[in-house]
From TrEMBL:
The lineage of its organism: Eukaryota, Metazoa, Chordata, Craniata, Vertebrata. The keyword Cell membrane applies. Its main location: membrane. The gene is Opn5. This is Opsin-5. It is found in: Cell membrane. GO terms for molecular function: 11-cis retinal binding; G protein-coupled receptor activity; photoreceptor activity. Residues 325-339 have a biased composition (Basic and acidic residues). It is a multi-pass membrane protein.
Length: 339
């Protein structure tokens, strides 16, 4: 199962990155964030899963202590980067839907700055266990490694470290995501009737943003569903009774957490499909609107030209009549003089 999941995840996320590289000059800020998600998922598949697959065949961890720390760091690094990226995506959607002025202000350079902050944030928290603040250790089933959650049982410093990780790398990002999408849902419900009366181009753009937001919500929901069971088991191991969790049961949350890298590419394709459909529909509506404007402009111009011609002809006829009348008047005066 892990082997098939790794193959699907690698090819799926690789395909997403390949297709994105072909249109890199046209990528919007939200799509750049989506590419970063694909990078995180690909990192989990390429860097982490081979170690687990080989260890599963050997029924034990075979890469030593340094391999365990490397595997734990890589899994935590890409997982944390993925969650913080989705937090940034939720904030982008929130600004785009609820505060249009800020949404227009966000450009590609801001997306790249945000990516730098995301990777720096993930690097900070994942490197702390390597410098003595916490550690990485094998999981109970012995074929993969993770944060040493059991440090909370050993010392007060371990408890502070675990609580800090839980707050800054799970609870705070999750709260921001939930807050952002709750506000978006309320805004969409309150403004849907107002947008319906706008111009067709504004309405189609709003519909596109709402659809992209729905798919972003789907990605975040899938990630949280995959990782929250793992977080619950980890917290129970840190502050509860770790021996009360059966080893067979502790495997399930780990497999579920790793599966997020496999189904995210499918959601990316849904994004591209919906975006293409909406973009095509919007393009057709724009072309239709432009054609109607062109026809209206042409008819108006013809009518104006006809009116100008008529006025010109009428003026010419009046001028000719006046000239003839003046000529006749001069002739009559001449005849009177001769008499």
């Amino acid at each position: 199962m892990l082997s098939y999941g790794r193959i699907l995840s690698t090819f799926g996320n690789g395909y997403v990155l390949y297709m994105s590289s072909r249109r890199k000059k046209k990528l919007r800020p939200a799509e750049i964030m989506t590419i970063n998600l694909a990078v995180c998922d690909l990192g989990i598949s390429v860097v982490g899963k081979p170690f687990t697959i080989i260890s599963c065949f050997c029924h034990r961890w075979v890469f030593g202590w340094f391999g365990c720390r490397w595997y734990g760091w890589a899994g935590f690094f890409f997982g944390c980067g993925s969650l913080i990226t989705m937090t940034a995506v939720s904030l982008d959607r929130y600004l785009k839907i609820c505060y249009l002025s800020y949404g227009v202000w966000l450009k590609r350079k801001h997306a790249y700055i945000c990516l730098a902050v995301i990777w720096a944030y993930a690097s900070f928290w994942t490197t702390m266990p390597l410098v003595g603040l916490g550690d990485y250790a094998p999981e109970p089933f012995g074929t993969s490694c993770t944060l040493d959650w059991w440090l909370a049982q050993a010392s007060g410093g371990g408890q502070v470290f675990i609580l800090s990780i839980l707050f800054f790398c799970l609870l705070l990002p999750t709260a921001v995501i939930v807050f952002s999408y709750a506000k978006i849902i309320a805004k969409v419900k309150s403004s849907s009737k107002e947008v319906a009366h706008f111009d067709s181009r504004i309405h189609s753009s709003h519909v596109l943003e709402v659809k992209l937001t729905k798919v972003a919500m789907l990605i975040c929901a899938g990630f949280l569903i995959a990782w929250i069971p793992y977080a619950v088991v980890s917290v129970w191991s840190a502050f509860g009774r770790p021996n009360s969790i059966p080893i067979q049961l502790s495997v399930v949350p780990t497999l579920l957490a790793k599966s997020a890298a496999m189904y995210n590419p499918i959601i990316y394709q849904v994004i591209d499909y919906r975006f293409a459909c909406c973009q095509t529909g919007g393009l057709r509506a724009t072309k239709k609107k432009s054609l109607e404007d062109f026809r209206l402009h042409t008819v108006t111009a013809v009518r104006k030209s006809s009116a100008v011609v008529e006025i010109h002809q009428e003026s010419s006829s009046r001028f000719t009549s006046a000239h003839v009348m003046d000529g006749e008047s001069h002739r009559n005066d001449g005849d009177c003089g001769k008499k």
